[in-house]
Structures are given as C-alpha cells and as structure tokens.
C-alpha cells in the first residue's frame, strides 16, 4: 500500500513538473524576422546595473524596459571569473597587490571566464538567472548571452585537462592572445584558444548548446567573433539553431560573418560609430556620413543587420561618457542611431543620462534618475516600433539621401510600404541654412507639431539641431 502511494505521488509529481516545464516553454516568445525589424537591444551590465549587482536587481526592472521598446536583452558575461592573473588596476594584477583586503575589491574582467557552464556567484545562482530569463520572456523579450569564444581565463579546467586547446609559444607555454607580429594584445588575464584543434570546436559548441537547450536562452553576442575562424561559425550556428531560431550578434564588422541564412544576424556598425565620433569633433561633415551610408549597400547584403550605438561597455569605460565624446551633439547623434538602417543599442546607464565612466574591474553603479534621455528614448521607441519606414532587420526600409545644399546638413528619408520618415540634422556647432525637404505636410515626431515644406525655401538649423519628420 505504501509503495502504491509513493508510486502514485511520484507519477503526479512527474507530470506536474512536466506540465510546469511545458508552461514555461509555451510562455517563451519566438525569435522571428518580423520581430527583428523593430527591435531595440539593451546591453545589461549586471555588476554595475544596481548597488546589489545581482540578477534579481536587474530582473525587477525588466518590465519598465518595455517603455523603451527593448526587445533583446544582451547580458554581459554571466560566468565565473578566473582568479589567476585577475586584473586589478592599470597594469597591475591582484597578485601584485599585497594587502588581502585591497585585493578583494578587484572583481576582474567578465571576459576572463573560468567555467562556461556556471554562473558568477557575484550575480546570484542559476535559479536567479532562470527567473531573469523567465521574466524577460513573460515581457515578450529575448535574452542573449555574451559569449567569449576566443579565450578563457587561466583557471578554466581546459588549461590542465586540455592544454591542446590553447595557443602555445616556441617553448610550449600557453600564451595570452597575440597580435600578428607576436606581441601581446594586452589581455594577459586570458589564455588564447587554438581553433586548429577541431576537438575544441566540439567542446565549444557543446557548452553553447547547453545554454540554449537547458536554460532557454535566445542567442549569443559573440566577443571578438572576427578572431575566431569563419569555419567554426559555419559549423556552430546551424547546430545551435537546430531546434529554434536564435538571434546571433557578432562583435565584428566583417561581412563574411553575416553571409548566408545560417550565419550571424547582426554585427557592429563600427564605421558608423567612428563617423559619429568624428562628426562630434568637427572632423567629418554630413556629406562624409552620407558617403558612409551609401557605401553600406556595397559592403553588406540586403538582409545584413548593423547594430548602431553611441556607447557600450568598452566605449564608456575606456573612451569616455557620451557627453565627454559627443558634447552638445549627444542628443542628435542618439536620434541618428535610431534613424539609420539597423538596430539601435542602449547601454546600461545611458537611459539615465550616465555622466561617469563605469569601473571595469571593480564594483560601481549606474544612476537611476530619469532625466532627459529616458523620455527621448521613449519617443524614439514609439517611432521605431510603429513606423515601417524605420524597419532595420532582414527586410529593411530603403534610405535615400536628400540634397540639402549644405555639406554640414545631413538629410535623408526612409521609406517602406506607404510610410515615409525624413531626418534632417545640422552636424556642426554653427547655425546652418539648408534647402527645405520635399514639398508636403509633415508631423514633427519630437513635438507632434505640423511642419510644412514648400520644397524650395532656405531654412535654418541651430547647432546640432535635428528634425524627425513623418509624412
């Protein structure tokens, strides 16, 4: 009798768990080409996102990211970080610091991974991570993991168990990543992986597939993807997508990483980012940026997606805040990142007008006061999500440059179906006159005011002023 009761309870428990698992699977949204057309991506720096620096603290804020139109959450690496050769500050490692208490505050680089199949205890446990993913899915968002395929930390078990997975010097010692001339890239806290070993391919794919199959993630942002052989990606991505469509982002600009339906969906608009930096410094005019936009069609295939950004974790920590780099051009260039073809990125803290460089190897925190940028991002999100003319995925809207009559005034229109959105921007620190855009009645997307153009008059734009006009 007791055995019967135990067996009955076991069956009920099994099917209860099975039903719960099915409910979770049903609630997960599916990555589709249609979703990508209007998507906005958010880079989540879990350590610095909150004073707690935990999965749970970020999870609580996921619902409000919907106000910013976020569809894809990119989590910076969530894995345990190696202690061996852990970076501290400047050129120092923690082993260079004698005071044990002082050493404790240096948490190391997220990109020095010691275990690809575990979570960093600094952020929480696997249950906390699962709650984050489920909350994102419940809010119709996708979660992609920042994956580090080019190297591992020095504590990874492959160092001792599979030393053949690593690049070695003439004396047989494992090396950190090197430049083509054999000099160090400056990443001495990590060990370089050698993709000449095909067994490494299988091990890396298995670790990536674990997160797709077991934890339900929706894709990957792959660190320095261009330093890993294309042959690996051609093998890995189809296998990762065997059971469901993923979203794959390459930290790279090489077109070959996006060629074909079974490669990456999106890469970095590095050239566009550099162009915007140059415009803010007065080193590039509107005509030059227009040339960049036209050159994209020659370099990339029509269904290739570029990620447009004015900041990210590297830019903020190493090159400066948005205000430091862009100054008074900040708002206009943020708008431009939404209006050009591709997918716009929001980096943790950007939505809160973050005005300091986040520490990279220590605990820090972003502000949480909504000021000027949050409402601007809300307006841009509505435009991005409701206007086919701003589609930026695999079936993007067209872009046509408009002659402004002034090399300092950038003017173009985006069109798809019966929708037209025009953009006009003064890319200089001086007032500029320009020829009015195509005749017609428009709505100013930022103010909701009517805007009429006769197509002939000369108009004036104040320094770094811009218009987003809906026809």
Any overview of this molecule?
- With 471 residues, the protein is an alpha/beta fold.
- It has a single domain (25-396), classed as TIM Barrel (Alpha-Beta Barrel), CATH 3.20.20.
- Helices cover 33% and strands 18% of the residues.
- It has 15 helices and 18 strands.
- The protein has helices at 2-27, 33-37, 46-49, 55-65, 100-104, 126-138, 158-161, 198-213, 230-240, 270-280, 286-299, 313-319, 322-326, 330-339, 373-386, and strands spanning 40-44, 70-75, 142-147, 151-153, 190-192, 219-222, 247-250, 266-268, 305-308, 343-347, 398-401, 409-416, 419-426, 432-435, 440-444, 450-453, 458-461, 466-470.
- The strands form 4 sheets. It has an 8-stranded parallel barrel with strand order 1-2-3-6-7-8-9-10.
- Helix 4 runs parallel beside helix 6, helix 10 (270-280) runs antiparallel to helix 11 and helix 14 packs parallel to helix 15 (373-386).
- The N and C termini lie far apart (76 Å).
- The model is unreliable at 1-26 (pLDDT under 50).
Arrangement of strands in the largest sheet: 1-2-3-6-7-8-9-10
CATH topology: TIM Barrel
The residue fraction in helices comes out at: 25-40%
| Head-to-tail CA distance between termini | 76 Å
Question: What composes the largest sheet?
Answer: 8 strands, parallel, barrel
CATH architecture: Alpha-Beta Barrel
**CATH fourth-tier homologous superfamily:** Glycosidases
- Mass-distribution shape: globular
- Into how many domains do the coordinates divide? 1
**Stretches where pLDDT falls below 50 for ≥5 residues?**
1-26
The proportion of strand residues reads 15-25%
């Amino acid at each position: 009798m007791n055995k019967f009761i135990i067996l009955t309870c076991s069956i009920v428990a099994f099917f209860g768990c099975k039903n719960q698992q099915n409910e979770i699977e049903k609630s997960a949204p599916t990555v589709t080409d249609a979703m990508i057309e209007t998507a906005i991506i958010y880079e989540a720096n879990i350590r610095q996102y909150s004073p707690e620096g935990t999965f749970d603290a970020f999870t609580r804020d996921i619902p409000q990211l919907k106000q910013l139109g976020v569809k894809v959450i990119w989590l910076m690496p969530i894995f345990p970080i190696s202690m061996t050769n852990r970076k501290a500050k400047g050129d120092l490692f923690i082993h260079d610091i004698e005071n044990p208490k002082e050493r404790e505050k240096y948490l190391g680089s997220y990109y020095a991974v010691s275990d690809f199949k575990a979570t960093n205890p600094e952020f929480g446990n696997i249950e906390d991570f699962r709650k984050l993913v489920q909350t994102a899915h419940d809010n119709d968002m996708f979660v992609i993991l920042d994956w580090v395929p080019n190297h591992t930390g020095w504590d990874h078990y492959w160092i001792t168990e599979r030393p053949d997975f690593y690049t070695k010097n003439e004396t047989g010692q494992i090396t950190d990543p090197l430049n083509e001339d054999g000099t160090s890239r400056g990443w001495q806290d990590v060990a370089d992986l050698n993709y000449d070993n095909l067994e490494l391919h299988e091990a890396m794919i298995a670790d990536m597939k674990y997160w797709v199959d077991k934890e339900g993630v929706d894709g990957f942002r792959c660190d320095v993807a261009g330093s890993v052989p294309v042959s690996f990606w051609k093998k890995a991505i189809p296998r990762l997508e065997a059971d469901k469509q993923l979203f794959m982002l390459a930290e790279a600009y090489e077109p070959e990483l996006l060629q074909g339906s079974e490669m990456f969906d999106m890469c970095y608009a590095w050239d566009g980012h550099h162009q915007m930096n140059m415009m803010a410094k007065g080193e590039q005019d509107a005509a030059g940026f227009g040339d960049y936009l036209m050159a994209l069609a020659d370099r990339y295939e029509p269904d290739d997606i570029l990620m447009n950004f004015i900041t990210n974790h590297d830019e903020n920590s190493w090159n400066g805040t948005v205000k430091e780099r862009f100054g008074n051009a900040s708002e206009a260039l943020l708008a431009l990142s939404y209006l050009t073809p591709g997918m716009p990125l929001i980096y943790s803290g950007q939505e809160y007008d973050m005005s300091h460089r986040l520490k990279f190897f220590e605990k820090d925190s972003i502000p949480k006061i909504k000021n000027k940028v949050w409402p601007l991002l809300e307006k841009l999100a509505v435009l991005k999500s409701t206007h086919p003319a701003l589609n930026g995925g695999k079936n993007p809207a067209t872009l046509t440059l408009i002659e402004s009559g002034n090399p300092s005034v950038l003017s173009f229109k985006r069109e798809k179906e019966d929708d037209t959105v025009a953009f006009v921007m003064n890319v200089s620190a001086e007032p500029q006159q320009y020829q009015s855009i195509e005749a017609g009645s428009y709505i100013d997307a930022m103010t909701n005011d009517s805007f009429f153009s006769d197509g002939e008059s000369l108009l004036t734009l104040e320094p770094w002023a811009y218009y987003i006009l809906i026809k």
